[in-house]
Design goal:
heteropentamer; A mainly alpha (496); B mainly alpha (462); C mainly alpha (101); D mainly alpha (187); E mainly alpha (620); A: 496 residues; 20 helices; E: 620 residues; mainly alpha; 27 helices; elongated
């Protein structure tokens, strides 16, 4: 079942490539159909999921290094799988008007969908890494092939930067593999008996490698600089996937790999993680505040939002803290992954609409768009408020848990760090209001005249994302019920 | 002693293919020399089959100097399979050439020499195999008898001759120190020998091996020959001899007494230098064959890593064997695209994706495979290689390899980017002008690299 | 007459040959240098056989292999020179330097 | 006996090196060829001193043959065979000198300083018989490989060196009754 | 019962949400729908006040959330629902059909609904959700006329300022979890040190921000950019009242810490005094009313600080009635006459007597004239303050005098006959018409404002205190009542006398007061500009420095692209980078050995092998 979910998009992609003559619209409808089916399957999995690791498949792959095709879902991966399916569907719908090399575009996105789903379902380090790396390749082609502006260079930078991260991560994985007795890449085994328990120095080095690899992907300050150009020059759907799904790979790695498998060094260096998180929060927010380019701005807010997650997982590592509060923090972190995916995905798609009409992201050249594009404006307002953490939308649920959990864990370090990080929500509020003022409200700008309102397909792609954010913001229990046992498990694992 | 010729059945099959091919070539009309290719291919297929059967039997030693063990099995199969594919590439490229049958025969003989090189259990056999593996190569390099080809042949020959003689002097020195030339006896003989002299002998021996492997400092011929010789020959000389060289290197690592020579450090330094130099020099190449040549040099550097940690990590042998096979396949695939397209300038590849999407996709898969992107075969090889390095306490080497892998992305992408341009380059051949056979081989190898990567478990299990 | 003497002779021949290989422009002269190097190897091999391990014939085979190496390399050398001369009308290495970088 | 042997060895050795040096000093290629031959002859004779009669003879005979071929080549390519013109065709002379001198010094130092292994066993009465035994026994594979290598060399050198093949002589279908050779009367 | 608890906030929230989603399509039906929902909400509120429903539901792991209506909440919900209804009735009249009425009513309903949740929430999480939602709605309402950049900016200032305070609640929630393991509002007084202090600090910061107390007051001035009904609601029953409510709610916590109660009391008192002076200095009616809001809320904050929950709540309710009335009156004139300048409004009350009378009643209430409500409630608070500190009492009393003064100023301005100063249409083109819906709520509110003074009657006061669970709190002594009533009357008289003199009381010393104590400029100089500056510096830093190392990679990549024919000209200006050049240089260096000359290959190989030998011999 899970395997079907993962590889269905790939199969469809291959089918699209092989089938000779399909009109462009037909290609996209096939794409949308595949996404719908996949989403339905994910929903079915969600409904059928009953705790622990569900839908597990474990097939030997490279037995000589004890690597296997081992997949399964639990409370950490299920929300992200769902997020992936939703976002890819949204991108497919959004791309209904795509005209440039549609078949390749659809195939590439379906390929990416398989990769992302596979990564979140992977329970084997090697499998995880395979998908991790393939995501980079796929996104490279998306940016290089369908981007705009200086896209070739941005794509190269993205590729090199994240590829370096992935190889560092691979070194870390190898360290984990060699540290385990017997040597294995299996996440379940590694989680059960954390490797390198006897050698703190080595464990710290492995954590460093894994941490740096994931941090680049996340990204955190100071290894975030690939993000703004990549986003700016990527096509809208690519940005949405990049920010919405692929950034989560890094943070997911923290809770899935770094924390349970290296609990001892994680606890020891939790303060480093916390500092990185806080710096990312504030730095990302402040730099975003100074941007004139809307897409760059949103990209930097991603740094800010990911910073909260990093802060939370760091705080969860301070063993002195209250257990319940740390669970809350981890739950918040996972919720934030989902929430950020939905919100930022929507915002990037909205950016795509803007660029489609005005061919510019420069906020100063727009203004008063609420007059000519009221629906666009409404969606943007909702997205902006969701992103700044307004209650009633998913961002608040996530960030409140993170702050409350981090402060509530009761340790001085976490509490003061989180207290400082709260400043982030204020800066975010200020910067999003500036966005609204410069782009949507006030008098018209030079490009305002050319902007038309969102079309049906665009609305159908964006509105559900924001609606999902609203649902999570109002009635989060359905999500939290799934996440909470998993985050409790993570916290207890990291406490070993 | 075991003098059962059946143990050498795979080699004999290929030899028979070569001899029969040579003889029948004498009587075949010019346009029908492809029969020789068929005969050679039959010999290779039989050889692969025989090697496959041999792989199921216990390890042994034939003629006191031919080790039959997993390394040999893998080398045999890899060499013969690669040669088979190259025969396929050549069939289109040298069609109806007056020397077409000799071309096939030389390739078969060189492959034979490579296998002997890989399986040699005696320094003298190693030396003889060196000759057998090299000499056809010189002729192949100059096969076209054009200015570039003959220059390539000259450089190949001069480097091969000098380094072969240096290797021979190394053999002599090791013989003098160990009182014998067979590995088994050397293992004992060298244990008490003066370390300095052993070191000199080993480094001298390394000269020939580095030449075959295309590793620093025996790499100078690689770019020039790859560019000057015909693409098919370039494919051959950058793919097949390396297989034998690394097998031989790995064997020699097992011969040396511990402590006499700091073999791991020596090889590690050579490895680091090789991969770095190859990558740096590849950066600004405009000629795809030169670019690939430097890429093969850097790959040789990665391949040296498991050699460096031979005996220090259980992963070293699987890493080497798998990586060698994966490398051969992937490199062959990239060259096959070059053969199919028949253009050398990077810019000439602009718009290939539009004109021949499948071929372009194969190229991308092969190049990304060389980078080490999963799930291609080289990824699994690289993974094992990294693992072996870390396990063998050569983490710094793994880090160097990582940095190099990242740097290598540059020039591979330099090739990939124009491929996806919309406007075809002015020199890009029409879809109908592409060599169909080579294109099919390119696609096939690309698929095979993926299959080998995904099915690496199966491959490693055997 | 000792092993060292043989080896010194071998080293001298090797070094002279190396000089030739490095310094000569004419390809044939380079080949002569290479032959001198092999010459040194022959001396060393024979010396080792006689003074270290006369009990087995490995040293003799080594000398034989060295001779074969020399002969075969020379044969190929001449063939390469012939081909090069036909294609480019040059017989010195300096003139065959188009492939570089 | 030993003294005579030693004197002979040193004489031959000095002769070999001196003629080796002469190869690169004389100003004609023909002379160089003969100097090289001389060097080999000295070595071949030196082999006789340590009972390697067969190998010594082999060296001498092979070298004579090879040098004859070389002379032919030189005439073919008009490489100033008779020393009619002064010939200085060197490059990187100083570098080559430094390198080779350095190599020699290092090797000599190594040779002198290294504690070489002691002799094990005694020279057999008939080393040639030993050689034959080895070639038919444990070293058979060496000769087998070399045999194939010789075959390969033949094919390779023919491929490289001759520009007219069978199809040039007998037609693409190999149905020419008689070879068509340049200068020969094909008809 | 819990159905009622759910329905009370859910009705306005969902109805508001629907109106927003429907957008302009619902413009026609919006007023009716809004009024209906509002009325229903009032009924529900009344029901809830009686039935006291309790709702509990899981929100976060181990931290159940809930809403409950206790005495204080009961008063609040009824007050909120009632004022909302009154304001919406007025708004139905004021907003023309051209306006986006669906948006307006939707936002107003959500605004009120959020306030209802705020006053019924039993835990910090839910409180914070409603609290922030209210802030966002205030933003949307202040910036209702979004085409005007100035108004939008005002809305932004209001939102960011209040959110700055809100951060305190986030902190408080975290500390509450740390200190007590729960987020329950009621239990925080028992939290362990140092969490209790931190909780108190966070809550106080949030409340002061929301209530526009010093030093946050300036946002309320900017909040005047919204439509008048928005001001009427925002200044009376919601938003600013929420801060006061929260402080009253957590009064035990403030008292438990010791310092927090004192701090809050003094902040309230000083705000009452300072903003009273600000109000006195205003020339704009709505600005004057805004400042007076701050000042009046100051009394409530003071009440929370000195432990007079009953007095504070009474002050809150009474002020809500009076202030919504005054804003609606001011709004009615603004629409009809197109001005809100105090001078320009001369004679306004005579032109629209109904409005004038009601407005006058409100102004007199504000002045604290006996027997109107604020007279009683303020004195209740002040007598509690007197029990704490004479200074507090004195400051409060002075603030009371100031409120009488500015109320008097307003009263005289609108009631004096039209004269040379009268100017119509200084702001907008007036309609010269005040419709029935606009007039309808005014008398009702005026009556309420006047009658709520009844809580000062001893019998009612006892019931009131019981209702709020605040029995035994000090009540106003007759002496104090007499003093303050007399002071108010005196002040009114004095203002009346002074107003006859032609020269206005403008002078250099009033300028800071007219400019709201320059608080906004101070915030701008001390916070906004530095932060923006820092942001710009960091952005440049990010581009130039952090990205610098990476740019090397990009530079080489660009080189690659260049050589591949992608880009003809090097973008040297951006890509000149030492590391990039180094990479290129290394690449060239690596190719240099490949000379094409065999003899150099030979020499290099020889040297390299020699080096390797040396390495191995020496290294081994």
């Amino acid at each position: 079942m899970l395997t079907l979910v993962i590889f269905l998009p790939l199969a469809v992609a291959l089918g699209l490539l092989v089938l000779p003559r399909l009109r462009d619209t037909a290609v996209i409808w096939v794409w949308i159909g595949a996404c719908v089916v996949d989403l339905a399957l994910v929903v079915a999995i969600w409904v059928g999921y009953d705790g622990g690791i569900g839908y597990e498949t474990d097939v030997r792959w490279i037995p000589s290094v004890r690597a296997g095709y081992h997949v399964g879902v639990d409370g950490l991966s299920l929300p992200l799988l769902a997020l992936t399916a939703v976002l890819f569907l949204a991108c497919a719908v959004f791309s209904l008007r795509q005209t440039r090399r549609v078949r390749a575009f659809a195939a590439l996105f379906l390929f990416l969908q398989t990769v992302c789903l596979g990564l979140f379902a992977a329970l084997d380090l090697l499998l995880f890494f395979v998908f991790f790396d393939l995501s980079i390749v796929g996104m490279y082609f998306v940016i290089a092939g369908w981007g705009h502006g200086d896209n070739v260079r941005s794509a190269l930078k993205f590729f090199l930067y994240t590829f370096l991260g992935s190889l560092v991560l691979l070194l870390g994985f190898i360290g984990l593999y060699l540290g385990a007795e017997p040597h294995t890449f299996d996440m379940a085994d590694l989680t059960r008996t954390p490797p390198l328990n006897g050698s703190p120095g080595l464990a710290a080095l492995v954590l460093l490698a894994v941490g740096v690899g994931l941090a680049i992907k996340t990204p955190t300050v100071p290894v975030h600089t690939w993000l703004p150009p990549a986003h700016t020059d990527a096509p809208a759907a690519g940005s949405a996937i990049l920010a919405g799904v692929m950034l989560k790979m890094g943070t997911y790695g923290f809770v899935r790999i770094a924390m349970p498998m290296l609990p001892e060094p994680w606890r020891r260096y939790a303060w480093v993680v916390i500092v990185v998180g806080v710096v990312s929060v504030l730095y990302g927010a402040l730099v975003a505040l100074a941007q004139d380019n809307l897409k760059r701005l949103i990209a930097y807010t991603s740094v800010n939002h990911m910073g909260y997650i990093v802060l939370a997982v760091g705080a969860a590592g301070l063993a002195a803290g209250d257990v319940d509060a740390r669970r809350l923090a981890v739950t918040g972190a996972v919720t934030q992954m989902v929430s950020h995916g939905l919100i930022t995905g929507a915002l990037f798609l909205l950016c795509g609409v803007l660029n489609d009409r005005g061919h510019s992201y420069d906020m100063d050249r727009y203004g008063g768009l609420a007059r000519v594009a009221p629906v666009f404006a409404a969606l943007t307002v909702v997205g902006a408020f969701a992103s700044l953490g307004l209650p009633g939308l998913s961002g608040f649920i996530a960030e409140f848990q993170i702050f409350t959990g981090a402060i509530g864990s009761g340790t001085g370090a976490a509490a003061s760090a989180a207290a400082v990080a709260i400043l982030g929500i204020l800066i975010t509020a200020a910067l999003f209001l500036r966005v609204l003022h410069r782009v949507l409200l006030g008098g018209p700008g030079e490009l305002t005249g050319g902007v038309t309102d969102v079309r049906g397909s665009e609305l159908a792609a964006i509105a559900p994302l924001l609606a999902a954010s609203l649902v999570i913001g109002i009635a989060p229990r359905f999500l939290l019920d799934v996440i909470e046992p998993a985050s409790a498990a993570v916290v207890s694992l990291v406490a070993r | 002693m075991n003098e059962n010729p059946v143990d050498l059945l795979p080699e004999l099959c290929v030899l028979a293919g070569a001899v029969i091919g040579l003889l029948s070539g004498l009587f075949l009309p010019r346009a029908r020399q492809w029969v020789v290719a068929v005969i050679g291919a039959a010999g290779l297929v039989a050889g692969i089959g025989a090697a496959g059967v041999a792989a199921t039997r216990p390890d042994t030693m034939a003629f006191d100097a031919f080790v039959i063990d997993p390394i040999t099995h893998v080398s045999r199969i890899a060499v013969f399979a690669a040669t088979l594919l190259i025969l396929g590439l050549a069939a289109g490229a040298v069609r109806a050439h007056p020397r077409e049958s000799e071309f096939y025969v030389l390739i078969l003989l060189a492959a034979l020499g490579t296998v002997a090189f890989a399986a040699a259990g005696d320094l003298l056999v190693l030396m003889a195999a060196y000759l057998l593996a090299s000499i056809p190569g010189y002729a192949l390099a100059g096969f076209g008898k054009d200015a570039a080809g003959t220059e390539a042949a000259l450089k190949y020959y001069l480097m091969g001759a000098l380094l072969g003689i240096v290797m021979l002097s190394g053999v002599t020195l090791l013989y003098g120190l160990g009182r014998a030339t067979s590995y088994e006896m050397l293992r004992d003989g060298l244990s008490g020998a003066p370390a300095g002299a052993v070191a000199v002998g080993v480094v001298a021996l390394l000269a020939g091996l580095a030449f075959k492997a295309g590793a620093v400092p025996g790499h100078f011929w690689v770019p020039d020959v790859t560019e000057g010789a015909s693409p098919v020959v370039a494919t051959f000389v950058t793919t097949v001899p390396k297989i034998g060289a690394f097998a031989a290197l790995y064997r020699i690592a097992g011969v040396l007494p511990r402590g006499a020579v700091d073999w791991p450090l020596l090889i590690a330094i050579v490895a680091a230098a090789t991969m770095t130099l190859g990558n740096l020099a590849a950066f600004a190449q405009d000629n795809v064959r030169r670019l690939l040549a430097y890429s093969t040099i850097s790959q040789a550097g990665y391949l040296l890593v498991p050699v460096a940690v031979a005996g220090r990590s259980d992963l070293a042998q699987p890493a080497l064997l798998f990586y060698v096979g994966a490398y051969a396949l992937t490199n062959l695939g990239s060259f096959a695209v070059v053969v199919a397209v028949g253009r050398d300038r990077l810019a000439d590849y602009a718009g290939l994706a539009r004109r021949a999407p499948l071929l372009a996709l194969s190229l991308v898969i092969c190049l990304l495979g060389l980078v080490g992107t999963p799930p291609t075969a080289v990824f699994a090889g690289k993974l094992l290689m990294f693992g072996a390095a870390v396990d063998g306490r050569y983490t710094w080497l793994a880090v160097v390899a990582v940095v190099n892998s990242v740097a290598s992305v540059f020039y591979y992408l330099r090739w990939i980017v124009p491929v996806f341009e919309t406007a075809p380059g002015p020199h890009l051949p029409e879809a109908g002008e592409l060599l169909r056979g080579a294109a099919m081989i390119a696609v096939g190898t690309a698929v095979a690299t993926l299959a080998l990567g995904i099915g690496s478990g199966v491959a490693l299990a055997t | 007459m000792t092993l060292e003497a043989f080896l010194l002779l071998a080293a001298a021949l090797f070094a002279v040959g190396l000089y030739g290989a490095l310094s000569q422009q004419s390809i044939v002269m380079v080949m002569m240098g290479l032959e001198l190097m092999v010459n040194g190897v022959i001396v060393a091999g024979a010396g080792f056989w006689y003074y270290v391990a006369p009990g087995s014939a490995d040293g003799q085979v080594l000398v034989l292999v060295a001779l074969t190496v020399m002969a075969l390399e020379m044969a190929m050398g001449f063939a390469v020179v012939t081909a090069l001369f036909r294609a480019r009308d040059v017989d010195v290495t300096d003139d065959a330097g188009d492939l570089r970088g | 006996m030993a003294v005579t042997q030693a004197v002979a060895f040193w004489a031959l050795g000095i002769g070999a090196v001196a003629s080796g040096v002469a190869v690169f000093v004389v100003d004609s290629m023909a002379r160089a060829t003969f100097a090289l031959l001389a060097s080999f002859l000295c070595v071949g004779v030196a082999l006789f001193l340590i009972d390697l009669h067969y190998l010594g003879a082999l060296v001498i005979l092979m070298m004579i043959m090879e040098m004859l071929i070389m002379v032919v080549f030189m005439i073919m390519y008009m490489m100033n065979p008779a020393g009619l013109m002064p010939m200085v065709m060197v490059h990187n002379n100083r570098g080559a000198l430094v390198i080779s001198a350095g190599v020699f010094v290092a090797l000599a130092a190594g040779i002198v300083l290294t504690p070489w292994p002691r002799r094990a066993g005694a020279p057999p009465r008939d080393p040639t018989f030993d050689l034959g035994q080895a070639l038919m026994g444990p070293k058979m594979l060496v000769m087998m490989v070399i045999g194939v290598a010789i075959l390969a060399t033949m094919i390779a050198s023919v491929v490289l060196a001759t520009h007219r093949g069978r199809y040039d002589r007998y037609g693409d279908e190999l149905d020419g009754a008689r070879p068509r050779d340049p200068g020969g009367d094909a008809a | 019962m819990s159905v009622l608890g759910w329905a009370l906030p859910a009705l306005p929230l969902s109805a508001g949400g629907l109106l927003l989603v429907a957008g302009r399509r619902a413009d026609r039906a919006a007023p009716i729908a809004g009024l209906a929902v509002s009325a229903a909400t009032l009924l529900l509120a009344a029901g809830a006040a009686v039935a006291r429903p309790v709702v509990r539901f899981p929100l976060l792991a181990g931290l159940p959330s809930g809403m409950a209506v206790d005495g204080l909440s009961a008063v609040m919900v009824v007050m909120v629902a009632a004022v909302t209804l009154a304001v919406l009735v007025y708004a139905a009249g004021e907003l023309s059909a051209r306006e986006a009425r669906a948006r307006f009513f939707g936002l107003m309903l959500i605004f009120a609904g959020a306030m209802l949740v705020t006053v019924t929430a039993t835990d910090l999480a839910l409180l914070l959700m409603a609290w922030e939602l209210m802030g966002a709605m205030s933003y949307a309402l202040i910036g209702f006329w979004w085409r005007d950049p100035g108004r939008v900016r005002s809305a932004g200032v209001a939102f960011v300022t209040t959110r700055a305070g809100d951060m305190g609640l986030y902190l408080a929630a975290g500390c509450a979890l740390a200190g007590t393991g729960t987020l329950s509002l009621g239990g925080q007084a028992g939290a362990a040190d140092p969490w209790r202090d931190l909780i108190a600090a966070g809550v106080v910061a949030a409340a002061l921000g929301k209530s526009a107390q010093l030093p946050f007051s300036f946002w309320l001035s900017r909040a005047m950019a919204g439509p008048s009904p928005v001001s009427a609601l925002l200044h009376s029953a919601t938003m600013v009242a929420a801060g006061a409510y929260l402080l009253l709610r957590v009064q035990p916590l403030l008292a438990a810490t010791g310092w927090a109660a004192t701090l809050v009391a003094w902040t309230g008192a000083v705000t009452a005094l300072a903003l009273g002076a600000v109000a006195l200095a205003q020339r704009d009616l709505k600005q004057l009313l805004a400042a007076s809001t701050c000042a009046q809320i100051g009394f409530m904050v003071l009440a929370a600080g000195v432990g007079s929950v009953a007095g504070g709540t009474a002050q809150l309710v009474a002020h809500a009635a009076a202030k919504s009335l005054l804003f609606l009156g001011a709004g009615a004139w603004l629409v009809a006459l197109g001005t809100k300048d105090l001078g320009g409004l001369h004679g306004a009350a005579r032109r629209y007597p109904l409005v004038g009378v009601a407005f006058g009643a409100g102004a007199l209430t504000l002045a604290g004239l006996p027997p109107l409500s604020l007279w009683v409630t303020k004195d209740t608070v002040l007598s509690a303050a007197a029990g704490r500190s004479a200074g507090l009492y004195a400051v409060g009393l002075a603030a009371g005098v100031l409120s009488a003064a500015y109320a008097g100023r307003v009263l005289i301005a609108v009631w004096r006959p039209a004269d040379a100063g009268t100017r119509d249409d200084t702001e907008q083109t007036g309609t010269r018409h005040i419709g029935l819906p606009q007039r309808l709520p005014l008398p009702v509110l005026a009556a309420a404002a006047a009658a709520l003074g009844a809580v000062g009657l001893p019998a009612i006061a006892a019931g009131w205190e019981r209702l709020l669970g605040a029995a035994g709190e000090p009540r106003a002594e007759p002496v104090e009542l007499a003093v303050s009533g007399a002071l108010a009357a005196l002040t009114l008289t004095a203002v009346g006398v002074l107003a006859r003199r032609p020269r206005p009381i403008a002078a250099a010393w009033t300028r800071p007061f007219a400019g709201w104590l320059l608080l906004e400029r101070a915030a701008d100089t001390l916070v906004t500009r530095p932060v923006l500056g820092l942001a710009n510096v960091l952005a440049r830093f990010d581009d130039r420095v952090v990205d610098g190392g990476v740019r090397a990679v990009a530079a080489a990549g660009n080189l690659a692209a260049t050589l591949a024919g992608r880009r003809v000209e090097m973008r040297a200006d951006r890509l000149v980078d030492a590391v990039g050049r180094a990479a290129r240089w290394l690449g060239d260096l690596a190719r240099r050995p490949q000379t094409g000359q065999v003899h150099t290959y030979y020499a290099q190989a020889a040297v390299l092998f020699a080096a390797l030998v040396l390495l191995v011999v020496l290294g081994g």
